[in-house]
Amino acid sequence: MIYLDNNATTRLAPEVLEAMLPYFREHFGNPGSAHGAGRMPEGALVHARAQAAGLFGCEPAEVVFNSGGTEGLNHAFRGVFEAFPARRHFVTTAVEHSAVLALAGWLKNHGAEVTFLEVDAEGRLDLDRLEASLRPDTALVSVMAANNETGVRFPLAEIASMVKARGILLHVDAVQAAGKVPLDASVLGVDLMNVSAHKFHGPKGAGALFIRRGLRLKPFLVGGHQERGRRGGTEDVPGIVGLGAAASLAGSRMADWDRVRELRDLLEASLLAAVPEMRVNGQGAPRLANTSLLSFRGIEGEALLMKLDAAGICVSTGSACTTGQKEPSHVLRAMRVPAEYGRGTVRISLGHETTRQDIDRVREVLPAAAASLRALGPLGR
Ligand code: PLP
Predict the structure, then answer these.
(1) Do 214 and 189 touch, CB atoms closer than 8 A?
(2) Which of 237, 245, 247, 344 could be 16's S-S partner, Cβ–Cβ 3.0 to 4.6 Å?
(3) Across the chain, which distance is largest between two alpha carbons, in Å?
(4) Which atom of ligand 1 is nearest to the CA of 204?
């Protein structure tokens, strides 16, 4: 099997599993216990918090462990909504993850106003529009560090300086960017940033939220004193250990993204040469090294996915959270990709495990698959 859906999830790294296993077996104690069985788990949390802080570029005390990206987003949005009742305007972009779109709906149902910033045909933000959207009652600006479908990166330093100059809080959804680019939360002056371990070879159901020191949000889960009172409940020690180990591993493998980028660029160049009426979405914008969102005119994306699957190649038609939708995703619509292209979209997301042989196989299989679907004519669409 050739796995090219690393933006949906990644394989748990063997060294991460090794780090986690003792916390299922011998070090099963509760980190909150005063006796000996709690000591190793408590120490493990301290260590993992330092590792997660290294990923965010922040202080360990600014890290709140949680269950993943979706929880971090809920904590950030709902926490800010509750903490600043005099500010009822939120700003985000039209291409955020579906969880952010759902949270925007939640905010609107609770009386807030949400501005969605448009992007251009390459998926880039217009910073003048961002500036014009900011108001005295704006509570939060939330942008993704990198898009899960296209890999397009937003200019966080420029966004942060603009938003912070107005005294407005800034949240960054770093779920796709984490482990692929340095994050530097403290340097950028970001207030909130969330990551999810399963996107960088850690376990599923483990995540972290950076909350800048001094920013007081209500606890997300009301309960015990865990996570300095910011999230109650006995900690998922193996998951947190896994997140920490995966964060360290990602930091040590940053240079490998240059290799991955070369493979991705080779794939795109050879497909563009071999397949007529195909486009690479967001190719003109700064992108993550691993992501390629391809649209084929007059082909059904789902049919192409099935053909590739039959050849043992795993890709997706977009975000795993929107699988099964026939119409182009909200991201492609925001980029004004024509529907006849948008419907024929597949996302190929490479990873540290991707080899030249994998990419050569896709270069061999994909053009023939696209041609055979096109030969079926409209019936095959
Ligand atoms: N934000 C982005 C940009 C994502 O890509 C995802 C997952 O695909 C999430 C948030 C949600 O993360 P999780 O699956 O950990 O809830």
Answers:
(1) no
(2) 245
(3) 70
(4) 15
How far apart are the C-alpha atoms of 223 and 212, rounded to whole Å?
22
Domains and their CATH numbers in the chain: 2-8+255-375 (3.90.1150.10), 14-252 (3.40.640.10)
Ligand 1 contacts CB of residue 74 (under 6 A): no
DSSP string, 191-202: SEEEEEGGGGTS
Strands 63-66 and 207-211: antiparallel
Which residues, listed in sequence order, are joined to residue 113 by a DSSP beta bridge? 89
* CA 91 to ligand 1 center in whole angstroms: 19
Closest C-alpha residue for ligand 1 atom 9? 69
Q: Is 292 in the pocket of ligand 1 (CB under 6 A)?
A: no
Indicate if ligand 1 lies below 6 Å from the C-beta of 97: yes
pLDDT tens for 286-321 read 999 999 999 999 999 999 999 999 999 999 997 555
Measuring from atom 8 of ligand 1, which residue has the nearest CA? 8
Q: Does the active-site annotation cover 58? A: no
**In degrees, to the nearest 5, what angle opens at C-alpha 45 toward C-alphas 39 and 50?**
130
Active-site entry in 321, 322, 325, 367: 321
Q: Is there an atom of ligand 1 within 6 Å of 99 CB?
A: yes
The 3-state DSSP class for residue 91 equals: strand
The pLDDT of residue 273 is above 90: yes
Model pTM above 0.90: yes
Determine the average pLDDT of the residues in 132-151: 98
- Beta pairing, strands 207-211 & 278-281: unpaired
